[in-house]
Amino acid sequence: MPDPLDTVFAALADPTRRAILIMLLEDDMAVTDVAEPFEMSLAAVSKHLAILTRAGLISQERRGRVKWCKLEPDAMRDASVWMQSFGQFEAVNLDAFERFLEAELGEKDEPA
């Protein structure tokens, strides 16, 4: 069975999944709304959501006919503790983490 920490870091390694987490910082979202800004199929987005769910970073629930996604920020606690062990990093502040991810994603979107 894979180490939960490995699973979290593997999930965070993909820019699409990090973008999804940023979107879910605002509020719960329907899967179709999560998929809307991405230029990929709903099936491809669903695979990303499955990886995030397995890592415990999000949860999914069906409300009527619609499947909803919810951020589970406590899942990053072990990753934060691991990073703190190096003494160079502070505890992951989700607001700071969001700003970091936005900066990282923004730099990649800018033309070279």
TrEMBL record:
Pfam families given in the database record: HTH_5 (PF01022)
Every HTH arsR-type domain range: 1-93
Signal peptide feature range: none
Listed InterPro entries: ArsR-like_HTH, HTH_ArsR_DNA-bd_dom, WH-like_DNA-bd_sf, WH_DNA-bd_sf
Origin: domain of life: Bacteria
CDD domains xrefs: HTH_ARSR (cd00090)
PANTHER family recorded: SLL0088 PROTEIN (PTHR38600:SF2), TRANSCRIPTIONAL REGULATORY PROTEIN (PTHR38600)
Name of protein: Metalloregulator ArsR/SmtB family transcription factor
Lineage of origin: Bacteria, Pseudomonadati, Pseudomonadota, Alphaproteobacteria, Rhodobacterales
